[in-house]
Amino acid sequence: MRLRNTVAAACGAIALTAVLATPAHAATGDFGYKVVGLNGEPVAVTLHDPPSGECVTLAEVADPSASEPAFAPHNDTDAFAVVFTGADCTGNSWTLRPHGLPATDRLKLRSVLFLDG
Predict the structure, then answer these.
(1) 38-43: long-range contacts, CB 8 A cutoff, minimum separation 24
(2) Do residues 26 and 52 make contact, with C-beta atoms less than 8 angstroms apart?
(3) Cα separations in angstroms, 70 against 12, 43, 62, 78
(4) What is the pLDDT of residue 25?
(5) Which of 17, 26, 35, 56 has the fewest CB atoms within 10 Å around its CB?
(6) Nearest to 105 by CA among 73, 83, 82
(7) Distance between CA atoms of 113 and 54, rounded to whole angstroms?
(8) Is the overall model pTM greater than 0.85, yes or no?
(9) End-to-end CA distance of the chain, in Å?
(10) What is the three-class DSSP state of 78?
């Protein structure tokens, strides 16, 4: 009887470990935004199938002392996207719906977090 309980507990622990160790999924679709290019004109950038559950700092605008923030994000993924005014998902935030309309040029961002649905 004790052996059966021990085996059951061990199996339960293994199953729990497997669930917790599941790799992060990607948000399916595209997330677009614009940055100011070297010539001063807007340049469109797209993240294809971005990772879910981890902060993505936008490389083009990561350093606030060297660049203007990105703007006009468009979340065409299947996940909610939380955009942040600072790098590393800091600062003010705004949530964009999955497959939503493009935001205005006034919405600025330097990082984004995609939430699993």
Answers:
(1) 42/72
(2) yes
(3) 46, 10, 9, 21
(4) 83
(5) 17
(6) 73
(7) 6
(8) no
(9) 42
(10) coil
- Tell me the C-alpha distance between 30 and 50, whole Å: 8
What's the token pair of residue 85? 């005014």
Q: Which two tokens stand for residue 105?
A: 């040029």
How far apart are alpha carbons 41 and 35 in whole angstroms?
8
Q: Is residue 50 pLDDT above 80, yes or no? A: yes
Cβ contact 87:62 at 8 Å: yes
- Amino acid present at 81: A
Cα–Cα distance measured from residue 85 to residue 91, given in angstroms and rounded to the nearest whole number: 5
**pLDDT above 80 for 8:** no
- Which SS3 state, helix, strand or coil, does residue 112 take? strand
Count of other CB atoms within 10 angstroms of residue 20:
7
User: Cα-atom radius of gyration of the chain, to the nearest Å?
Assistant: 20
The pLDDT value recorded for residue 7 is: 43
